[in-house]
Amino acid sequence: MSRLVSGFSKLSKTEKVNWLIKNHLSDYDGAENTLKQYWNSDQKLQQLHDEFIENTITNYYLPLGVAPNFVINDKVYTIPMTTEESSVVAAASKAAKFWQTRGGFKTTVISTNKIGQVHFTYTGDFKALETYFNAIKPQLIEDAKPITKNMEKRGGGILDIELRNKTNALDNYYQLHATFETLDAMGANFINSCLEQFAKTFTANAESTLPKPINVIMSILSNYVPECLVRAEVSCKVEDLAEKDIDPNTFAEKFVQAVKIAEIEPYRAVTHNKGIMNGIDAVVLATGNDFRAIEAGVHAYAARNGQYSSLTHAKIENGVFTFWMEIPLALGTVGGLTNLHPLVKLALQVLDQPNAKTLMQIVAVAGLAQNFAALRSLTTTGIQEGHMKMHLMNILNQFEATPDEKLKIVDHFKTNIVTHSAVVEAIEKLRA
Ligand code: MEV
């Protein structure tokens, strides 16, 4: 109980660190140094990071890598990726290079609509509610003008508001279901502000019109965006899939079968899609977007037909192999971290300052490429060969291997299979 604290957020950063060490880290050797070694000596930069969240005590580093050679709609991209998983960037780069000589990736944005809802209860007659909604709808849009006028100037704004009767599923439950175009902004703040204004207008005017009050439960955007959809595809003649030790026909057939398994088997689909998200999250994070929102929306989409299923699809038709994915991605290239985090700004510059639609296409390609790389390994050499090669450095670092030891051991594993125990054995042998 002594760990309970009040007014913690008001303490200075050093006071917070001291409190943490006293209450949680007294037995942890070098805790203060571990925390402080990640503080940036540039005060301004550190303050920027401190102020991203409450109660910052230090910075948590993740690597920012780049995967070059992505040809997307005939333009070459180098894709920035932030991830802790050792094989992700290597796999993306490998897939990019593979498709670079086979026509590259083709992408299209299918739609860009986003959704927000005012959830409310009403105990009166539906007809009266409907009549009231139809009468007040123009006012809902009008009262939101101070929020929407700039977005409208650029061609976005509120697309529609519907009244939805959900009383079959939950007693007295209705929604204002609104659709938005938020252009290059991810749009969460814009949508939420509009919704809260709708709720105000909707309840205030109801008092004098409806026999029963409207009880607003909450107003919030939806991260389920099945109408903010992008498609990414690769395609080539089956014979062109040939590589040094891969027979193209066997490979293409096994690959398509692997995708079909993920289409019908949820246990496999979850891992299959997790691999896609390895690529997607890494670009989403590097470009300062909300990866939790993306994850939630993507997995909901993967289950849209009632069973969790593969996001990617593959076929062989008339000797042509095609592999594609349609995926919902609500992304922004303005607002949020995009104008704040120096590395996010830099990552967007590496991508030639894409607008939101272009970023949707790049991110979808990163996901498709990642899935291609995973399935190629899984259906040929097995996943561990590549994974463990990339993981080797992590194991060596755990054993605090010197640069010379690293060189020797990496060299040894060029011709030997990497397993945790084999690496430990090699280190022990070298040191003996
Ligand atoms: C590992 O992070 C991702 C994979 O498991 C994906 C897959 O199985 O398709 C390799």
TrEMBL record:
Keywords, alphabetical: NAD, Oxidoreductase
Catalytic activity: (R)-mevalonate + 2 NAD(+) + CoA = (3S)-3-hydroxy-3-methylglutaryl-CoA + 2 NADH + 2 H(+)
MF (Gene Ontology): hydroxymethylglutaryl-CoA reductase (NADH) activity; hydroxymethylglutaryl-CoA reductase (NADPH) activity
Alphabetical list of Gene3D superfamilies matching this protein: 1.10.8.660, 3-hydroxy-3-methylglutaryl-coenzyme A Reductase, Chain A, domain 2
Stored PROSITE patterns: HMG_COA_REDUCTASE_4 (PS50065)
GO terms of biological process kind: coenzyme A metabolic process
Family: Belongs to the HMG-CoA reductase family.
Name under which the protein is recorded: 3-hydroxy-3-methylglutaryl coenzyme A reductase
